[in-house]
Structure formats: C-alpha cells, structure tokens
Amino acid sequence: MSKLLTDLIEALRCLPGVGGKSAQRMAFHLLERERERGLRLAQVLEQAMQRIGNCTRCRNFSEEPVCPICASSSRDRQVLCVVESPTELAAIEQATGYRGQYFVLLGRLSPLDGLGPEELGLDLLTERLAEGEIEEMVIATNPTVEGEATAHYLAQLARAAKVKPTRLAHGVPLGGELEYVDRSTLAHAFGSRQPLG
Amino acid sequence: MSKLLTDLIEALRCLPGVGGKSAQRMAFHLLERERERGLRLAQVLEQAMQRIGNCTRCRNFSEEPVCPICASSSRDRQVLCVVESPTELAAIEQATGYRGQYFVLLGRLSPLDGLGPEELGLDLLTERLAEGEIEEMVIATNPTVEGEATAHYLAQLARAAKVKPTRLAHGVPLGGELEYVDRSTLAHAFGSRQPLG
Ligand SMILES: [Zn+2]
Ligand SMILES: [Zn+2]
C-alpha cells in the first residue's frame, strides 16, 4: 500500500470509535468517491483545530472572543446553567427550550487529576455571579461521584453570592421501562415520587 | 454553536457510516482531547486527496506513477489478479499469501452506468497480457450479476491472449454455519462438493 494511504488510515484512527478496519474503509471511500468533500473536510478540520478556542465569558468553544450565546441580546441573563463540557451544553441546547446563559467548567473537581477550582475557571464564575444579574444557577454537572461533589461546591458558591442554586431532576427516563433502569436511579425515583393530579 | 464548529460537524458527515450525531461526537472529541492528532489528520487528508492518483500500470491507488507492487522485483510476474477496486486488492493482500501482480478495473461492466471496456482500462489490460509474461489471470471480481458478467468478458480476453483464466472458489465460508449461508451459495457449494481423503 502507498505510504500516503497508510498514513491516512493511521491518521483517521484519531476519530472516536474508529479502528483500523473502519479507518481503511473511510480512506478508500473518500479516495474512490468523495475527493471533493474529503478535501473540504481537511480544510475545515485544519481551521477548526487551529482557530476554535474558548469564549472568554463562558468558556464554551468559540472562534470569536465572545461566543454567539454570550453575545446574544435575546437570551435570559438571569439564569446561568453550569455544565462540565461543551458536549453537555450542546445536548441541553438541542433537547430543551432553555434560553438562559451558560458556564462551561471544562472538567469537574478531581484533585487527583489536578483539577481544582482554578482549572475549572471558578474565579471567572465567581466574578460572573458578583455582577448581580444572575438569580438562578442551574447546576447540570453529570450525576457521577465527581459531578455531584462539583455540584455541591458550586451550590455553595451560588449561595454565597445570593443566587439560587438548582439541579436537574433525576428519575426514570421518559419511555424507559422500569426493568431496564439502573437500581440507584429507580430507588431515587421511587423516593422522589410525586403526587398525581 | 459557532459557525466553524457547525461546518466541521457537517464536513465530517462525508465519512461513511457517520451521521449527525457521530459527527458531533467526533468534532467535540477532537476539540476537547485530540487537537494535535486532528491537525495531523487534516494535513494528511489534504495531501492524500490531492496527491493520490492511480498507478499507470495497474490502476491501484498510488502517489507515484508506478505503485510499490508493480515496482517490486520480488513479486511474481506470471500471475495477474484482476479486481474491481483498490478495496478488494487490499483485502486480498491482507488475507492471502498472494505474491503476484494486480490489475484494478475501478468498476465493473455496467453499460447502464456508462461503464464499458474503455472505462475499465481493458485496453491497458490487453496490452499487459500481450507482453507475454503473464501465464495465469486470477479473476477476482465480486460474485454479483455485473461482477460475473465482467468475469466472463475478462476470461475471453485472457483466452484470446493464451493466458489461463481462473476464478476464486465459491462455497461455504470457513467457520460459517450452514443455516446462515445464503441459499444460492449453499446450492453452489453442494453442487461443487469435493471428495474427502
Ligand atoms: Zn460564551
Ligand atoms: Zn501498480
């Protein structure tokens, strides 16, 4: 096999979920049928890797100093949703009708990995809360041990700034069958049962 | 979402088997954790799309006028294996101990799609057979209707040049359970049964 083709197959393996076999299939597919789009991908990918940084206000991915959400005049400035990563921000934007602002931690408190308040930009978050506009902080860290510890820490920051902390509700996923829900979620959902009508 | 990020997610969909959701996951993964390798992929991909052409002798992918297999002095020049595409050439190279040469059709006879002898480079193949070195032509087109028609045509070319045409054996895949083998393969395998010991 030609050197450049071998290099391409190897390079494609940086994509998540792509092993040697899919990488080879992708390389041949692009060469045989999608040269134009492959070239376009190369160019956009290079630009994205070089130019996408983080918003100076919310730390979400952005190629501008201030991202479109922070710059928007139509988003509610009284609610701030704190997430661990841009992936979760995108999931909330796509699934919910949330129209407030965000703050992205780019991680979660994890002292063993060297992730403390400074790495998560909590000084920036504290400044933001001190501006006085925010009334509610929706804490949307993941429901893992570290995510919960982070949520606890964030709630204290919020209270210190006289901001109301809230947390996403836990429970049985909509359309989820009880027998397939994990035990701790089921226990939580049972304990948090709500009165009907 | 930032414009460049949206463009990247859209561009990643040129990869086979990658829909909107995986494209988004790939983009976030590269931005969050693999900038260096993402940049390397962009550069190799651009070079590959621009510089990989076809070998002037066998039509396999190559960034040189003559590919490494055609240029090799250690490959058997008396056997020529004809395949539809570089993908099948790679599969044969990786799975078998074949040490002969190749010819890649870059398609199969399909008059409705405008693919005739000229598009498949059969003039080049005829010249190659006329050189007189080749003794056997292994026809490894796919066992589809068009692949079989192509095999039939190729066998005639070979005979006209006094070259022995051979075809890959059909049958039950090794380790394949009979109940999962398609009916026509099973019928063929039964009809072509071999004496034991
Ligand atoms: Zn922002
Ligand atoms: Zn060649």
Automatic annotation (TrEMBL), chains A, B:
Question: Could you tell me what this protein is called?
Answer: Recombination protein RecR
CDD domains, sorted: TOPRIM_recR (cd01025)
In residue numbers, the zinc fingers (C4-type) are 55-70
Q: What does this protein do?
A: May play a role in DNA repair. It seems to be involved in an RecBC-independent recombinational process of DNA repair. It may act with RecF and RecO.
Sorted alphabetically, which InterPro entries does this protein's record hold?
Answer: DNA_Rcmb_RecR, Rcmb_RecR, Rcmb_RecR_Znf, TOPRIM_dom, TOPRIM_RecR
Q: Which GO terms describe its molecular function?
A: DNA binding; zinc ion binding
* Protein family (similarity comment): Belongs to the RecR family.
Which keywords fit this entry according to its UniProt record? DNA damage, DNA recombination, DNA repair, Metal-binding, Zinc, Zinc-finger
Q: Lineage, please?
A: Bacteria, Pseudomonadati, Pseudomonadota, Gammaproteobacteria, Lysobacterales
What is the scientific name of the source organism? Dyella marensis
Signal peptide feature range: none
Span of domain Toprim: 78-173
The UniProt entry, under Pfam families, shows: RecR_C (PF21175), RecR_HhH (PF21176), RecR_ZnF (PF02132), Toprim_4 (PF13662)
GO biological process terms on file:
DNA recombination; DNA repair
